[in-house]
Amino acid sequence: MSDHRIAPVAAHEPPYYAVVFTSVRTEGDNGYGETSDRMEELVKEVPGYLGMDHARTPGGLSITVGYFRDLAAIEEWRGNLDHRAAQKHGRAHWYESYTLHVAKVERSHTFERAQD
């Protein structure tokens, strides 16, 4: 059994922002996995990026939440040329539909069960 543990992004001191991207994908990978991995590495370079949570339902609904210290960090990520190219390709090839929400986090806390 692996020591790798899945855990949500820890709470940060508010205020900060959550960018919620909810999507339904088209059939097949069509290069999505490779691009997604690349975007995940690129966003880590944005000053003010705090982390990301991701979940997918068996029915194909995917939710990704990126956390950012401020709106300037979100704008930097939004303006990244590689990210913009991936967005354009996504609309043409990878997504049946998606919704994007940007929310200000005003309260945040973490719970973690003690390990034996």
Describe the structure.
- The chain has a domain at 28-61 and 71-99.
- It has helices at residues 32-43, 71-79, 81-94, and strands at 16-25, 49-56, 61-68, 95-105.
- A 4-stranded antiparallel beta sheet has the order 2-3-1-4.
- It is 30% helix and 32% strand.
- The protein has 116 residues and is of the alpha+beta class.
- The longest helix has 14 residues, at 81-94.
- It contains 3 helices and 4 strands; from the N terminus they run E-H-E-E-H-H-E.
Give the key terms.
116 residues, alpha+beta, four-stranded antiparallel β-sheet, 3 helices, 4 strands, 32% strand
**How are strands sequenced across the largest beta sheet?**
2-3-1-4
Which residues form runs of ≥5 with pLDDT under 50? none
Net shape: globular
Number of helices: 3
Pfam families: ABM
Enzyme class: oxidoreductase
GO molecular function, one term: monooxygenase activity
Organism: Streptomyces yaanensis
